[in-house]
Q: What sequence folds into this?
Protein backbone atom coordinates (compact mmCIF):
# COMPACT_ATOMS: atom_id res chain seq x y z
CA UNK A 1 0.00 0.00 0.00
CA UNK A 2 1.32 3.48 -0.92
CA UNK A 3 -0.10 6.13 1.36
CA UNK A 4 -1.09 9.46 -0.11
CA UNK A 5 1.75 11.97 0.21
CA UNK A 6 0.92 15.33 1.76
CA UNK A 7 2.79 17.80 -0.46
CA UNK A 8 3.11 20.20 2.47
CA UNK A 9 5.59 17.81 4.10
CA UNK A 10 7.95 17.46 1.12
CA UNK A 11 11.47 18.88 1.52
CA UNK A 12 11.91 22.22 -0.32
CA UNK A 13 13.15 21.95 -3.92
CA UNK A 14 12.00 18.34 -4.28
CA UNK A 15 12.22 17.17 -7.90
CA UNK A 16 10.09 14.23 -9.10
CA UNK A 17 10.62 12.52 -12.46
CA UNK A 18 7.68 10.17 -13.10
CA UNK A 19 6.60 8.75 -16.45
CA UNK A 20 3.19 10.41 -16.26
CA UNK A 21 1.89 13.28 -14.13
CA UNK A 22 -1.90 13.50 -13.88
CA UNK A 23 -3.14 16.94 -12.82
CA UNK A 24 -6.41 16.62 -10.87
CA UNK A 25 -8.01 13.82 -8.88
CA UNK A 26 -11.63 14.00 -10.03
CA UNK A 27 -13.45 11.21 -11.91
CA UNK A 28 -11.18 11.73 -14.96
CA UNK A 29 -7.86 11.77 -13.07
CA UNK A 30 -8.80 8.89 -10.76
CA UNK A 31 -10.13 6.75 -13.64
CA UNK A 32 -6.92 7.32 -15.59
CA UNK A 33 -4.71 6.50 -12.58
CA UNK A 34 -6.66 3.28 -12.03
CA UNK A 35 -6.48 2.40 -15.74
CA UNK A 36 -2.68 2.74 -15.57
CA UNK A 37 -2.36 0.94 -12.23
CA UNK A 38 -0.07 -2.07 -12.05
CA UNK A 39 1.77 -1.21 -15.25
CA UNK A 40 5.48 -0.45 -15.45
CA UNK A 41 4.73 3.27 -15.70
CA UNK A 42 5.50 5.48 -12.70
CA UNK A 43 2.45 7.70 -12.17
CA UNK A 44 1.96 10.70 -9.92
CA UNK A 45 -1.56 12.00 -9.32
CA UNK A 46 -1.51 15.65 -8.25
CA UNK A 47 -4.56 16.78 -6.31
CA UNK A 48 -5.06 20.30 -5.01
CA UNK A 49 -7.28 19.29 -2.10
CA UNK A 50 -7.34 16.34 0.21
CA UNK A 51 -10.11 13.96 1.32
CA UNK A 52 -12.65 16.58 2.40
CA UNK A 53 -13.92 20.07 1.65
CA UNK A 54 -11.69 22.94 2.80
CA UNK A 55 -12.98 26.50 2.23
CA UNK A 56 -9.44 27.91 1.82
CA UNK A 57 -8.72 25.49 -1.03
CA UNK A 58 -12.19 25.91 -2.54
CA UNK A 59 -11.64 29.69 -2.68
CA UNK A 60 -9.01 29.18 -5.39
CA UNK A 61 -11.96 28.28 -7.65
CA UNK A 62 -13.72 31.62 -7.28
CA UNK A 63 -13.98 33.90 -10.30
CA UNK A 64 -16.44 36.17 -12.06
CA UNK A 65 -19.47 35.67 -14.28
CA UNK A 66 -21.18 37.98 -16.75
CA UNK A 67 -23.99 37.52 -19.26
CA UNK A 68 -26.93 35.33 -18.33
CA UNK A 69 -27.41 34.14 -14.75
CA UNK A 70 -25.08 31.24 -13.97
CA UNK A 71 -23.78 29.31 -10.97
CA UNK A 72 -20.83 31.06 -9.26
CA UNK A 73 -17.56 29.48 -10.40
CA UNK A 74 -16.74 28.29 -6.87
CA UNK A 75 -20.25 26.85 -6.30
CA UNK A 76 -20.65 24.62 -9.36
CA UNK A 77 -17.57 22.45 -8.72
CA UNK A 78 -15.56 21.09 -5.77
CA UNK A 79 -11.80 21.21 -5.24
CA UNK A 80 -10.78 18.11 -3.33
CA UNK A 81 -10.11 14.44 -4.15
CA UNK A 82 -13.06 13.17 -6.18
CA UNK A 83 -13.67 16.68 -7.55
CA UNK A 84 -17.27 17.49 -8.43
CA UNK A 85 -18.31 13.84 -7.99
CA UNK A 86 -18.45 14.85 -4.32
CA UNK A 87 -21.78 16.48 -5.12
CA UNK A 88 -22.91 14.99 -8.42
CA UNK A 89 -26.40 13.59 -8.99
CA UNK A 90 -25.24 10.22 -10.34
CA UNK A 91 -27.21 10.50 -13.63
CA UNK A 92 -25.53 8.41 -16.33
CA UNK A 93 -26.38 8.06 -20.01
CA UNK A 94 -24.09 7.32 -22.96
CA UNK A 95 -23.90 9.88 -25.76
CA UNK A 96 -25.88 8.88 -28.85
CA UNK A 97 -24.25 8.05 -32.16
CA UNK A 98 -25.64 11.23 -33.67
CA UNK A 99 -23.93 13.37 -30.98
CA UNK A 100 -20.56 12.63 -32.59
CA UNK A 101 -21.59 13.41 -36.15
CA UNK A 102 -21.13 16.80 -37.84
CA UNK A 103 -24.66 18.17 -38.31
CA UNK A 104 -24.86 20.73 -41.10
CA UNK A 105 -27.57 22.61 -39.18
CA UNK A 106 -25.35 22.96 -36.06
CA UNK A 107 -22.31 25.16 -36.76
CA UNK A 108 -19.02 23.86 -35.24
CA UNK A 109 -20.58 20.43 -34.59
CA UNK A 110 -18.93 17.03 -34.93
CA UNK A 111 -16.22 15.00 -33.24
CA UNK A 112 -13.20 13.60 -35.04
CA UNK A 113 -14.13 10.20 -33.57
CA UNK A 114 -17.37 8.22 -33.70
CA UNK A 115 -19.26 6.63 -30.83
CA UNK A 116 -17.62 3.32 -31.80
CA UNK A 117 -14.32 4.62 -30.43
CA UNK A 118 -15.88 4.84 -26.95
CA UNK A 119 -17.92 1.65 -27.03
CA UNK A 120 -15.09 -0.64 -25.81
CA UNK A 121 -14.83 1.58 -22.72
CA UNK A 122 -18.46 2.17 -21.77
CA UNK A 123 -18.88 -0.98 -19.65
CA UNK A 124 -15.76 -0.22 -17.61
CA UNK A 125 -16.85 3.41 -17.20
CA UNK A 126 -20.26 2.17 -16.06
CA UNK A 127 -18.52 -0.06 -13.48
CA UNK A 128 -16.43 2.86 -12.19
CA UNK A 129 -19.65 4.87 -11.80
CA UNK A 130 -21.19 1.84 -10.02
CA UNK A 131 -24.21 2.27 -12.26
CA UNK A 132 -25.22 -1.40 -12.41
CA UNK A 133 -25.60 -3.56 -15.52
CA UNK A 134 -25.55 -1.76 -18.89
CA UNK A 135 -29.23 -1.89 -19.89
CA UNK A 136 -29.86 1.58 -21.35
CA UNK A 137 -31.38 0.06 -24.48
CA UNK A 138 -33.49 -2.44 -22.54
CA UNK A 139 -35.00 -0.10 -19.96
CA UNK A 140 -38.54 -0.67 -21.22
CA UNK A 141 -38.34 -4.46 -20.94
CA UNK A 142 -37.12 -4.11 -17.37
CA UNK A 143 -40.16 -2.13 -16.12
CA UNK A 144 -43.23 -3.81 -14.66
CA UNK A 145 -45.62 -1.07 -15.86
CA UNK A 146 -46.41 -0.09 -19.47
CA UNK A 147 -44.58 2.84 -21.04
CA UNK A 148 -46.26 5.92 -22.45
CA UNK A 149 -47.69 4.76 -25.82
CA UNK A 150 -46.15 7.45 -28.00
CA UNK A 151 -46.63 5.65 -31.27
CA UNK A 152 -44.49 6.53 -34.28
CA UNK A 153 -42.83 9.91 -34.37
CA UNK A 154 -39.88 12.04 -33.35
CA UNK A 155 -39.69 11.11 -29.68
CA UNK A 156 -39.20 7.84 -27.85
CA UNK A 157 -38.70 6.74 -24.26
CA UNK A 158 -35.00 6.47 -23.45
CA UNK A 159 -33.18 5.83 -20.19
CA UNK A 160 -30.90 7.23 -17.55
CA UNK A 161 -29.13 4.85 -15.23
CA UNK A 162 -27.79 5.99 -11.88
CA UNK A 163 -24.60 5.65 -9.95
CA UNK A 164 -25.44 3.14 -7.23
CA UNK A 165 -26.80 4.56 -4.03
CA UNK A 166 -24.75 2.95 -1.31
CA UNK A 167 -26.15 2.70 2.22
CA UNK A 168 -28.14 5.89 1.97
CA UNK A 169 -28.79 8.17 -0.95
CA UNK A 170 -25.33 9.07 -2.18
CA UNK A 171 -23.93 8.22 -5.62
CA UNK A 172 -20.27 7.25 -6.02
CA UNK A 173 -17.89 9.86 -4.61
CA UNK A 174 -14.78 8.97 -6.57
CA UNK A 175 -12.26 10.15 -3.93
CA UNK A 176 -13.64 8.20 -1.00
CA UNK A 177 -14.73 5.24 -3.14
CA UNK A 178 -11.34 4.71 -4.82
CA UNK A 179 -8.98 5.85 -2.02
CA UNK A 180 -7.94 2.28 -1.17
CA UNK A 181 -7.60 1.25 -4.85
CA UNK A 182 -5.26 4.19 -5.47
CA UNK A 183 -3.21 3.27 -2.39
CA UNK A 184 -3.06 -0.35 -3.51
CA UNK A 185 -1.65 0.53 -6.94
CA UNK A 186 2.09 0.15 -6.43
CA UNK A 187 3.04 2.34 -9.40
CA UNK A 188 0.68 5.25 -8.56
CA UNK A 189 1.62 7.90 -6.00
CA UNK A 190 -1.16 10.37 -5.19
CA UNK A 191 -0.05 13.75 -3.80
CA UNK A 192 -2.64 15.78 -1.91
CA UNK A 193 -2.42 19.53 -1.19
CA UNK A 194 -0.41 19.67 -4.44
CA UNK A 195 -1.55 22.62 -6.58
CA UNK A 196 -0.19 22.78 -10.08
CA UNK A 197 0.50 26.45 -10.74
CA UNK A 198 2.30 26.27 -14.09
CA UNK A 199 2.76 23.99 -17.09
CA UNK A 200 6.20 25.02 -18.30
CA UNK A 201 7.23 24.43 -21.92
CA UNK A 202 10.78 24.19 -23.25
CA UNK A 203 12.11 27.16 -25.24
CA UNK A 204 10.67 26.07 -28.60
CA UNK A 205 7.22 25.66 -27.00
CA UNK A 206 6.79 22.10 -28.22
CA UNK A 207 7.29 20.00 -25.08
CA UNK A 208 6.27 20.31 -21.45
CA UNK A 209 9.55 20.50 -19.55
CA UNK A 210 8.22 20.73 -16.00
CA UNK A 211 5.23 21.41 -13.76
CA UNK A 212 5.40 23.93 -10.94
CA UNK A 213 3.62 22.82 -7.77
CA UNK A 214 2.80 24.92 -4.70
CA UNK A 215 1.07 24.27 -1.40
CA UNK A 216 -0.93 26.75 0.61
CA UNK A 217 1.77 26.53 3.31
CA UNK A 218 4.40 28.00 0.97
CA UNK A 219 6.10 24.81 -0.16
CA UNK A 220 7.17 24.67 -3.82
CA UNK A 221 8.39 21.73 -5.83
CA UNK A 222 8.94 20.63 -9.40
CA UNK A 223 7.93 17.66 -11.51
CA UNK A 224 9.63 16.70 -14.75
CA UNK A 225 7.39 14.00 -16.24
CA UNK A 226 7.68 12.33 -19.64
CA UNK A 227 3.96 12.87 -20.22
CA UNK A 228 1.37 15.14 -18.63
CA UNK A 229 -2.39 14.65 -18.49
CA UNK A 230 -4.41 17.70 -17.54
CA UNK A 231 -7.57 16.50 -15.77
CA UNK A 232 -8.54 19.43 -13.59
CA UNK A 233 -12.12 19.93 -14.87
CA UNK A 234 -13.21 21.96 -17.90
CA UNK A 235 -12.83 25.36 -16.25
CA UNK A 236 -9.50 24.72 -14.56
CA UNK A 237 -8.04 22.96 -17.61
CA UNK A 238 -8.53 26.19 -19.56
CA UNK A 239 -7.24 28.32 -16.69
CA UNK A 240 -3.98 26.39 -16.31
CA UNK A 241 -3.32 26.43 -20.07
CA UNK A 242 -4.05 30.17 -20.37
CA UNK A 243 -2.06 31.09 -17.26
CA UNK A 244 1.02 29.12 -18.35
CA UNK A 245 2.04 31.88 -20.77
CA UNK A 246 5.76 32.35 -20.14
CA UNK A 247 6.86 30.73 -23.43
CA UNK A 248 3.67 30.95 -25.53
CA UNK A 249 2.29 34.42 -24.70
CA UNK A 250 -1.33 33.40 -25.50
CA UNK A 251 -1.02 30.33 -23.27
CA UNK A 252 -0.25 26.66 -23.88
CA UNK A 253 -2.22 25.22 -26.82
CA UNK A 254 -3.81 28.60 -27.46
CA UNK A 255 -2.02 29.54 -30.68
CA UNK A 256 -5.42 29.73 -32.40
CA UNK A 257 -7.25 31.56 -29.60
CA UNK A 258 -9.49 28.58 -28.80
CA UNK A 259 -8.66 27.73 -25.17
CA UNK A 260 -11.57 28.76 -22.95
CA UNK A 261 -13.94 29.31 -25.88
CA UNK A 262 -17.01 27.13 -26.60
CA UNK A 263 -17.68 26.66 -22.90
CA UNK A 264 -21.05 24.95 -22.45
CA UNK A 265 -23.40 23.55 -19.86
CA UNK A 266 -26.78 21.89 -20.22
CA UNK A 267 -29.59 24.37 -19.61
CA UNK A 268 -32.35 22.81 -17.51
CA UNK A 269 -35.51 24.87 -17.96
CA UNK A 270 -38.27 23.91 -15.53
CA UNK A 271 -42.00 23.49 -16.12
CA UNK A 272 -41.61 23.75 -19.90
CA UNK A 273 -44.96 22.07 -20.63
CA UNK A 274 -47.94 20.43 -18.99
CA UNK A 275 -48.51 16.88 -20.21
CA UNK A 276 -51.90 15.23 -19.69
CA UNK A 277 -52.09 11.44 -19.91
CA UNK A 278 -55.67 10.25 -20.59
CA UNK A 279 -55.21 6.73 -19.27
CA UNK A 280 -54.28 7.63 -15.68
CA UNK A 281 -50.99 7.73 -13.78
CA UNK A 282 -47.76 7.18 -15.72
CA UNK A 283 -45.43 4.30 -14.85
CA UNK A 284 -43.29 5.30 -11.86
CA UNK A 285 -40.09 5.20 -13.94
CA UNK A 286 -41.04 8.50 -15.67
CA UNK A 287 -41.15 10.66 -12.58
CA UNK A 288 -38.60 9.03 -10.30
CA UNK A 289 -35.71 6.56 -10.10
CA UNK A 290 -36.79 2.94 -10.01
CA UNK A 291 -34.51 0.29 -8.47
CA UNK A 292 -34.49 -3.07 -10.25
CA UNK A 293 -33.64 -6.45 -8.80
CA UNK A 294 -30.51 -6.68 -11.00
CA UNK A 295 -29.00 -3.61 -9.29
CA UNK A 296 -29.83 -1.08 -12.01
CA UNK A 297 -31.50 2.18 -11.04
CA UNK A 298 -33.37 3.69 -13.98
CA UNK A 299 -35.43 6.69 -14.96
CA UNK A 300 -37.22 7.32 -18.23
CA UNK A 301 -36.87 10.44 -20.36
CA UNK A 302 -38.26 11.45 -23.74
CA UNK A 303 -35.58 11.72 -26.37
CA UNK A 304 -35.69 12.85 -30.01
CA UNK A 305 -34.70 10.29 -32.65
CA UNK A 306 -31.75 10.95 -34.94
CA UNK A 307 -34.17 11.15 -37.88
CA UNK A 308 -36.25 13.82 -36.14
CA UNK A 309 -33.15 15.91 -35.27
CA UNK A 310 -32.14 15.87 -38.91
CA UNK A 311 -35.59 16.44 -40.36
CA UNK A 312 -36.36 19.41 -38.10
CA UNK A 313 -32.79 20.69 -37.68
CA UNK A 314 -33.06 20.70 -33.90
CA UNK A 315 -30.52 19.90 -31.17
CA UNK A 316 -30.59 17.09 -28.62
CA UNK A 317 -32.74 17.13 -25.50
CA UNK A 318 -33.97 14.89 -22.72
CA UNK A 319 -37.46 15.83 -21.61
CA UNK A 320 -38.33 14.58 -18.14
CA UNK A 321 -41.52 14.19 -16.17
CA UNK A 322 -40.98 16.22 -13.01
CA UNK A 323 -44.11 16.04 -10.83
CA UNK A 324 -47.89 15.56 -10.96
CA UNK A 325 -50.02 18.71 -11.01
CA UNK A 326 -53.69 19.60 -10.60
CA UNK A 327 -55.20 21.25 -13.67
CA UNK A 328 -57.18 24.46 -13.28
CA UNK A 329 -60.74 24.66 -14.65
CA UNK A 330 -59.61 25.82 -18.09
CA UNK A 331 -57.17 22.90 -18.28
CA UNK A 332 -59.85 20.42 -17.21
CA UNK A 333 -62.23 21.75 -19.87
CA UNK A 334 -59.52 21.41 -22.53
CA UNK A 335 -58.95 17.78 -21.52
CA UNK A 336 -62.67 16.93 -21.65
CA UNK A 337 -63.25 18.56 -25.04
CA UNK A 338 -60.09 17.02 -26.53
CA UNK A 339 -61.03 13.57 -25.21
CA UNK A 340 -64.52 13.87 -26.73
CA UNK A 341 -63.02 14.92 -30.06
CA UNK A 342 -60.63 11.94 -29.98
CA UNK A 343 -63.27 9.52 -28.73
CA UNK A 344 -61.28 8.46 -25.66
CA UNK A 345 -62.12 8.15 -21.98
CA UNK A 346 -60.24 10.77 -19.95
CA UNK A 347 -61.99 10.25 -16.63
CA UNK A 348 -58.71 9.09 -15.04
CA UNK A 349 -56.55 11.71 -16.76
CA UNK A 350 -53.44 12.84 -14.89
CA UNK A 351 -51.38 15.97 -15.52
CA UNK A 352 -47.61 16.40 -15.15
CA UNK A 353 -45.11 19.22 -15.28
CA UNK A 354 -42.25 18.53 -17.72
CA UNK A 355 -38.64 19.65 -17.44
CA UNK A 356 -35.71 19.24 -19.78
CA UNK A 357 -31.96 18.96 -20.20
CA UNK A 358 -31.14 20.73 -23.46
CA UNK A 359 -28.12 20.52 -25.71
CA UNK A 360 -26.91 24.08 -26.37
CA UNK A 361 -25.39 24.97 -29.74
CA UNK A 362 -21.59 25.49 -29.66
CA UNK A 363 -20.79 29.20 -29.24
CA UNK A 364 -17.20 30.49 -29.50
CA UNK A 365 -18.13 33.60 -27.50
CA UNK A 366 -19.41 31.67 -24.51
CA UNK A 367 -15.98 31.68 -22.99
CA UNK A 368 -13.64 31.73 -20.03
CA UNK A 369 -10.86 34.30 -19.82
CA UNK A 370 -8.22 35.21 -17.27
CA UNK A 371 -8.67 38.38 -15.21
CA UNK A 372 -6.06 40.61 -13.54
CA UNK A 373 -7.13 39.27 -10.14
CA UNK A 374 -5.07 36.43 -8.67
CA UNK A 375 -5.69 33.63 -6.20
CA UNK A 376 -3.58 33.04 -3.10
CA UNK A 377 -0.96 31.13 -5.16
CA UNK A 378 -0.69 33.89 -7.77
CA UNK A 379 -2.75 32.18 -10.50
CA UNK A 380 -5.00 34.61 -12.42
CA UNK A 381 -8.68 34.06 -11.72
CA UNK A 382 -11.23 33.23 -14.41
CA UNK A 383 -14.21 35.14 -15.64
CA UNK A 384 -17.01 33.47 -17.61
CA UNK A 385 -19.10 35.17 -20.30
CA UNK A 386 -22.25 32.98 -20.17
CA UNK A 387 -24.69 33.05 -23.04
CA UNK A 388 -27.62 31.13 -24.40
CA UNK A 389 -29.12 31.76 -27.83
CA UNK A 390 -32.85 32.37 -28.40
CA UNK A 391 -32.61 29.64 -31.04
CA UNK A 392 -31.63 27.08 -28.37
CA UNK A 393 -35.09 27.60 -26.89
CA UNK A 394 -37.06 27.90 -30.14
CA UNK A 395 -35.50 24.71 -31.53
CA UNK A 396 -36.27 22.77 -28.39
CA UNK A 397 -39.84 24.10 -28.57
CA UNK A 398 -40.20 22.23 -31.86
CA UNK A 399 -39.36 19.01 -30.05
CA UNK A 400 -42.17 19.71 -27.59
CA UNK A 401 -44.55 20.45 -30.47
CA UNK A 402 -43.70 17.02 -31.86
CA UNK A 403 -44.34 15.41 -28.47
CA UNK A 404 -47.78 17.05 -28.41
CA UNK A 405 -48.49 15.82 -31.93
CA UNK A 406 -47.50 12.26 -31.02
CA UNK A 407 -49.64 12.24 -27.87
CA UNK A 408 -52.69 13.30 -29.85
CA UNK A 409 -51.96 10.96 -32.76
CA UNK A 410 -51.68 7.98 -30.43
CA UNK A 411 -54.69 9.21 -28.41
CA UNK A 412 -52.53 8.84 -25.29
CA UNK A 413 -52.71 12.42 -24.07
CA UNK A 414 -52.13 16.06 -24.86
CA UNK A 415 -49.61 18.77 -24.18
CA UNK A 416 -49.71 22.47 -23.30
CA UNK A 417 -46.50 24.36 -24.05
CA UNK A 418 -45.79 26.87 -21.32
CA UNK A 419 -43.19 29.21 -22.87
CA UNK A 420 -42.63 31.16 -26.01
CA UNK A 421 -40.39 34.12 -25.07
CA UNK A 422 -36.81 34.03 -23.81
CA UNK A 423 -37.60 35.60 -20.44
CA UNK A 424 -40.19 32.87 -19.78
CA UNK A 425 -37.66 30.12 -20.50
CA UNK A 426 -35.04 31.84 -18.37
CA UNK A 427 -37.32 32.28 -15.36
CA UNK A 428 -36.31 29.63 -12.84
CA UNK A 429 -33.99 27.90 -15.29
CA UNK A 430 -31.23 25.76 -13.77
CA UNK A 431 -27.95 24.55 -15.22
CA UNK A 432 -26.59 21.01 -15.05
CA UNK A 433 -23.16 22.11 -13.75
CA UNK A 434 -21.81 20.02 -16.61
CA UNK A 435 -18.75 21.99 -17.67
CA UNK A 436 -17.91 21.27 -21.29
CA UNK A 437 -15.99 22.37 -24.32
CA UNK A 438 -13.11 24.69 -23.32
CA UNK A 439 -10.36 22.60 -25.00
CA UNK A 440 -12.39 21.12 -27.83
CA UNK A 441 -11.30 18.16 -29.90
CA UNK A 442 -10.61 18.46 -33.63
CA UNK A 443 -8.02 17.08 -36.00
CA UNK A 444 -7.66 20.62 -37.37
CA UNK A 445 -5.58 22.81 -34.98
CA UNK A 446 -7.54 25.84 -36.21
CA UNK A 447 -10.77 24.26 -34.94
CA UNK A 448 -9.63 22.48 -31.82
CA UNK A 449 -7.16 22.50 -28.93
CA UNK A 450 -6.61 18.72 -28.79
CA UNK A 451 -6.52 16.06 -31.49
CA UNK A 452 -8.54 12.84 -31.62
CA UNK A 453 -6.15 11.25 -29.07
CA UNK A 454 -6.66 14.21 -26.68
CA UNK A 455 -3.08 15.41 -27.33
CA UNK A 456 -2.73 19.22 -27.29
CA UNK A 457 -1.95 20.40 -30.82
CA UNK A 458 1.66 21.52 -31.09
CA UNK A 459 2.82 20.02 -27.75
CA UNK A 460 4.30 16.54 -27.92
CA UNK A 461 3.63 15.35 -24.34
CA UNK A 462 0.53 17.13 -23.01
CA UNK A 463 -2.90 15.43 -23.05
CA UNK A 464 -6.26 16.64 -21.75
CA UNK A 465 -8.83 14.39 -20.05
CA UNK A 466 -12.41 15.32 -19.24
CA UNK A 467 -15.40 16.97 -20.83
CA UNK A 468 -13.39 20.08 -21.78
CA UNK A 469 -12.53 18.17 -24.97
CA UNK A 470 -16.19 17.64 -26.03
CA UNK A 471 -16.62 19.64 -29.29
CA UNK A 472 -20.41 19.11 -29.30
CA UNK A 473 -22.22 18.18 -26.20
CA UNK A 474 -25.28 15.99 -26.73
CA UNK A 475 -27.85 16.12 -23.97
CA UNK A 476 -26.53 13.17 -21.94
CA UNK A 477 -24.83 13.82 -18.63
CA UNK A 478 -21.10 13.96 -19.20
CA UNK A 479 -19.36 11.91 -16.52
CA UNK A 480 -19.89 8.37 -17.84
CA UNK A 481 -18.78 9.58 -21.28
CA UNK A 482 -15.74 11.52 -20.11
CA UNK A 483 -14.62 8.47 -18.13
CA UNK A 484 -14.97 6.26 -21.23
CA UNK A 485 -12.90 8.77 -23.19
CA UNK A 486 -10.30 8.85 -20.39
CA UNK A 487 -10.04 5.05 -20.36
CA UNK A 488 -9.42 5.21 -24.11
CA UNK A 489 -6.66 7.75 -23.40
CA UNK A 490 -5.23 5.28 -20.86
CA UNK A 491 -4.92 2.62 -23.58
CA UNK A 492 -3.33 5.17 -25.92
CA UNK A 493 -0.74 6.14 -23.28
CA UNK A 494 0.12 2.50 -22.60
CA UNK A 495 0.76 2.10 -26.32
CA UNK A 496 2.84 5.23 -26.90
CA UNK A 497 4.88 4.74 -23.73
CA UNK A 498 5.57 1.03 -24.16
C1 LIG B 1 -24.20 19.72 -8.46
C2 LIG B 1 -23.64 18.87 -9.56
C3 LIG B 1 -24.36 17.77 -10.02
C4 LIG B 1 -23.86 16.98 -11.05
N1 LIG B 1 -24.57 15.90 -11.46
C5 LIG B 1 -24.10 15.13 -12.45
C6 LIG B 1 -24.80 13.98 -12.86
O1 LIG B 1 -25.85 13.63 -12.31
N2 LIG B 1 -24.29 13.25 -13.89
C7 LIG B 1 -23.13 13.59 -14.51
O2 LIG B 1 -22.73 12.90 -15.45
N3 LIG B 1 -22.42 14.66 -14.10
C8 LIG B 1 -22.86 15.43 -13.09
N4 LIG B 1 -22.14 16.51 -12.67
C9 LIG B 1 -20.86 16.80 -13.35
C10 LIG B 1 -19.72 15.93 -12.81
O3 LIG B 1 -19.52 16.19 -11.45
C11 LIG B 1 -18.46 16.23 -13.63
O4 LIG B 1 -18.73 15.85 -14.98
C12 LIG B 1 -17.23 15.47 -13.17
O5 LIG B 1 -16.98 15.65 -11.82
C13 LIG B 1 -16.03 15.97 -13.97
O6 LIG B 1 -14.91 15.18 -13.63
P1 LIG B 1 -13.42 15.72 -13.86
O7 LIG B 1 -12.51 14.77 -13.20
O8 LIG B 1 -13.22 16.03 -15.28
O9 LIG B 1 -13.36 17.14 -13.12
P2 LIG B 1 -13.60 17.51 -11.56
O10 LIG B 1 -14.62 16.66 -10.95
O11 LIG B 1 -13.82 18.99 -11.57
O12 LIG B 1 -12.22 17.19 -10.90
C14 LIG B 1 -11.08 18.02 -11.08
C15 LIG B 1 -10.09 17.74 -9.95
O13 LIG B 1 -8.91 18.53 -10.19
C16 LIG B 1 -8.47 19.12 -8.99
N5 LIG B 1 -7.72 20.34 -9.35
C17 LIG B 1 -8.24 21.49 -9.87
N6 LIG B 1 -7.25 22.37 -10.09
C18 LIG B 1 -6.09 21.77 -9.73
C19 LIG B 1 -4.73 22.18 -9.73
N7 LIG B 1 -4.34 23.40 -10.17
N8 LIG B 1 -3.78 21.32 -9.27
C20 LIG B 1 -4.15 20.07 -8.83
N9 LIG B 1 -5.43 19.65 -8.80
C21 LIG B 1 -6.38 20.49 -9.26
C22 LIG B 1 -9.76 19.39 -8.22
O14 LIG B 1 -9.53 19.52 -6.84
C23 LIG B 1 -10.60 18.17 -8.58
O15 LIG B 1 -10.41 17.12 -7.67
C24 LIG B 1 -22.59 17.30 -11.64
C25 LIG B 1 -21.87 18.40 -11.16
C26 LIG B 1 -22.38 19.17 -10.14
C27 LIG B 1 -21.57 20.33 -9.64
A:
Amino acid sequence: MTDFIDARTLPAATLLEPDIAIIGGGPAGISLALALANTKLKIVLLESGSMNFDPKIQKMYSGGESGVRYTALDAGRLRFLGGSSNHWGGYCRPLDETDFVARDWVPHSGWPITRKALEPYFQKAQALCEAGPWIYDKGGEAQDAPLLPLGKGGLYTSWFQFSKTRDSVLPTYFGHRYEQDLKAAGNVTPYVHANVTGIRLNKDGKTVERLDIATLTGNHFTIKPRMVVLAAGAMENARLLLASNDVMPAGVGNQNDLVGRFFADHPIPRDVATMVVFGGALAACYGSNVSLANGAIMRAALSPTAAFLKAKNVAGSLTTVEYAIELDDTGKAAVITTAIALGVDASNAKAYSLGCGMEPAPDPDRRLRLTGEKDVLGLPRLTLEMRIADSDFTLYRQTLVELGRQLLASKAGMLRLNYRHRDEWMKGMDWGNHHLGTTRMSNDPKQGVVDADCLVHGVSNLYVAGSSVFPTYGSSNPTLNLIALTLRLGDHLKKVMA
